[in-house]
Structures are given as C-alpha cells and as structure tokens.
Amino acid sequence: MVSTSLFDDGPEIEFPTEIMCSRFCPITRDLFLAGAISGHLHWIKINDDENEQSMSNERSMKVHKKSVRAIGLTPDGQSIITVSKDKSIKLRSTETGKMITKYKRAHDSPINCLCIVDNCVLATGDDDGYVKLWDYRQKKSLAEFHDCDDYISDLTCANDRRTLLTTSGEGTLTVYNVRKKKLQIQSELMDSDLTACQIVKDGTKVVCSTMEGVLYFFNWKEFGNMSDRFPGHPGGIECLTSLDQSLIVTGCEDGKIRCLSLYPHRIMSIVGRTGSMPIQTLSTSCDTDYLIGTSTSQETLQLIDTQQLKIILNKKKKKSGKQQDNSFFADLEINEQTEFDDEQQRSSDESDSDSDDDDDDDIRKPPKKKKKKVHF
Q1: Res. 321: pLDDT tops 70
Q2: Which residue has the higher pLDDT, 113 or 294?
Q3: What is the predicted pLDDT for the residue at 174?
Q4: What is the pLDDT of residue 364?
Q5: Of 376, 207, 204, 193, which Cα lies nearest the Cα of 281?
Q6: What would you measure as the largest C-alpha separation in the chain, in angstroms?
Q7: How far apart are alpha carbons 47 and 41 in whole angstroms?
Q8: Three-class SS string for 62-104?
C-alpha cells in the first residue's frame, strides 16, 4: 500500500478498507469516528500523552450495507448518526454502538451529507437535490424540500439553530428556515459546483468552495448574490472547515490541504498532503487543535496537530505576511514557497468583488460546468 500520510510527524492509523468520512466528538477531542466504503464505522481513540501521541481503534462494526458517506454526533456527544449510499439513516449510542433509531429508506436516492441541528433534529441531503428534516423521536421526516436539480454537497446550520445553509452541484447556495420549514432564499446560479460551506467571521460571512478552485463569500442575510470571491487555488476544492473565525482549511483535488486567512484572503501554508489523490473530507476537534482529512482511495489516516499551526499562522497575519523562520514549517516552506508565490500572484491578478446585495435575487443563468464530483 502506498503511504498517504498527511504530515510527517503525526500519529497514523490504518484501516482494512478505504475511509470515506470522519467526525470528531463535539465534547472531547480524544474520540473521532471514521466511516468506510465497506459500510463499517470505526471508533478511534486519541491518546495524548506528554511525550507521545497515538491512535487506537477501539471498536469497529458494520453499520450500513453500502459506503458510509457522512457522520454526525448530537451536541451532547451521546449519539452517532450515519448516512449511507444505501439510502438509510441510523442513530446509535456513542458509548455502546447499540442501535437507537433507523430510517431504512430515508431517501429515494443515496444520501450524501447530513447536518445536526440540535439533540433531536437532523437535516440530510441526497444525490438528486432533496433535503429532508428529521426528528429522531418521530418515524417520518418533518419536511422535504426539492429546490436543487443536482446533488446536495454540504449542509451547515447557524448557531441560532433555525437557519440551514445548503450547497449543491448545480452551483447554488440555498437557505432554509428550519422552524418554519420553508425555503428562505436561493442564490443566483454560480459557474461551478458548490462543494461545501462554512459560517465565519462571527456569523457575519459565509464562505463556499467550488470545483473550479474559487471561494465565494456571502454577507449574512444577503444570500442572493456573492459579495466577494477568491480564486487562489490551482484546482478544485472538495471540502473545507474552519480553525477559527479568520482561518479556514481547504481540502483540494490535488491532494493538498491548505490553510487560508480571511479578510484579507491569503493562502498561508500547505499543512498536509496525500500525494495526488483528492482530499474528500476534513474534520476538526471541538477545540480545533486536531485536524483529520480523508482522501479518495485512502486507507491510512494521520492526525495533524493544529495548535502550533494556529499560533504560527496568526503571527504571520499580524506581521503582514512577512516570512517567519520556524522549524515547524521549515521543510514545507522551502519546498512550497514557489507555489505559494504563484498562487498569490494569480489571486491578486484575478480577485474581484460583487456589490449586489439583493436578498430576493434568485437569478438563473446557464451554468459553465467543468467537472463533477465523484461519489462512492
């Protein structure tokens, strides 16, 4: 097996089959879950001793007939939710793995993503553009929406627990009111698949990634059209997550994990790599001190310790981008400085902004799609 480690000095753990997704427990950084293409779910414990970090597989069980595509945990950390290509949703005890609730045919198409709204409510999105809301205490879905003509790529809920953001393969950001169970607004059609979204800058901005390598930014409550864009990536962005309100991490189709600062937008460093295979998902611990990425055809996961990473990158931001000589990034910066300079030059040449703030704007235009995301 070819090594697909993400960082040279982080602990690794191997699995018998390819890992499709992972998720940290929301109340402790010592536990994360990994879902496999075989339908197995793995409970992974992180041992953080003073002298050495390690990971161990505490439990594995077959939870779906087909691949596990997404994992979620309730805010209290007591229950695990998994969705699958087999179209089912299953709820299990985090401690024992025992089944609590299941929806055998939750969707008519394979389920691609999920979002935990609160301890009892869940949102799911499938390959045909359907979004559903569920209450674990009820046998049927609370609501069903079909406002997208292509797959739902990501779901994110705001801290108010009432605003649900969805991105789709058709290139739209769609916003739902969870409590009223209705569509709030849909953005105009972008030129590429939107692959993921994150709420940043203390809830005032939303950033969406695309298969063209462009990041789109929206002002909160102004979702009709983007307010800014950053085309600094050399290729498609498969996924993204945030380390804090001004630092995000992108998983890219070139197999690299990049860390970016926001406002001003800048690629700060490459913090991980998996060779040439695309990064499929990213997950951070509850304190954002750990980062794990999964890659297509990857059977090995490696833990990235982001504590020192955040300190160094925030220092870089404060010093206006001046290069700081630090052993933690010495090897990466020597090898990748040329790439950073090229990406920054492209960013400064191409970056632009859009001032259209119309909340009710739902303009449709012909898409200019270059590539489609592959689902397993």
Answers
A1: no
A2: 113
A3: 98
A4: 30
A5: 376
A6: 58
A7: 19
A8: ECCCCCEEEEEECCCCCEEEEEECCCCEEEEECCCCCEEEEEC
3-state DSSP assignment of residue 24:
strand
Supply 208's token pair.
Answer: 């969406």
Domain that holds residue 53: 17-118+128-144
Nearest to 267 by CA among 237, 298, 305: 237
What is the tally of structural domains in the chain?
A: 1
DSSP label at residue 255: S
Q: Which residues contact 50 (CB under 8 A, 6 or more apart)?
A: none
Q: What is the CATH number of the domain that holds 113?
A: 2.130.10.10
pLDDT surpasses 80 at 5: no
Q: How confident is the model at residue 163 (pLDDT cuts 50, 70, 90)?
A: very high
The residues, ordered by sequence, that sit 6+ positions from 262 with a Cβ below 8 Å of its Cβ are 200, 201, 205, 207, 246, 247, 248
CA of residue 150 relative to chain centroid, distance: 18
